[in-house]
Amino acid sequence: MAKNKAEHIDIGIEEKTRQKIGEGLSRLLADTYTLYLKTHNFHWNVTGPMFNTLHLMFETQYTELALAVDLIAERIRALGLPAPGTYSAFAKLTSLKEEEGVPNAEEMIRLLVKDQEAVVRTARSIFPIVDEAHDEPSADLLTQRMQVHEKTAWMLRAMLG
User: Fold this and answer.
1) What dihedral angle (degrees, nearest 10) is formed by the CA atoms of 114, 155, 35, 126?
2) Confidence (pTM)
3) 86 close to 142: Cβ distance less than 8 angstroms
């Protein structure tokens, strides 16, 4: 089926390049959504002496992640590509591992540090193609996401002593 004129996108980034950027952003979306689910799970299931602190901290983190998935998906759409939106698609695209069972509070923190850092690496891996394409909106999004995840990883690490 041929594309109609309304579907043609001419934003100064070639279709092939937009596709590559979209693929990278789709991996970032999958990582972000998977981290959202894990953080929300830990919010529900944390126990122990740090319960109140971690319960509130995890809530703040998963709320921020819930907003972030929308921003990432909307950028994919702005590039003219479909945003993945199913568990099966996210499972194929994510670099994060789901947890079996309920870890203790300290292990939850360690796992979230590892995953926050993994999301930073995913975002950073997209930068070369975004930079080469002069895709400033995607670069801005990636920079903001890296800042959030690096800061969150630092705050979680600080709780480990």
Assistant:
1) -70
2) 0.93
3) no
Distance CA 87, CA 140 (A): 27
Residue 7, Cβ density class (10 Å: 0-12 exposed, 13-18 middle, ≥19 buried): exposed
- Cα separations in angstroms, 12 against 17, 68, 135: 10, 25, 9
In which residue are the tokens 């194929």 written? 92
- pLDDT, tens only, 88-138: 999 999 999 998 899 999 999 999 999 999 999 999 999 999 999 999 999
Q: Which two tokens stand for residue 7?
A: 């579907």
Domains of the chain (ranges, CATH numbers) = 13-159 (1.20.1260.10)
The answer to whether the CB of 15 falls within 8 A of the CB of 69 is no
Q: Give the tens place of pLDDT for each residue, 51-67.
A: 999 999 999 999 999 99
Q: Is 6 exposed, middle or buried (0-12, 13-18, 19+ CB in 10 A)?
A: exposed
The H or E element spanning position 31 is helix 15-45
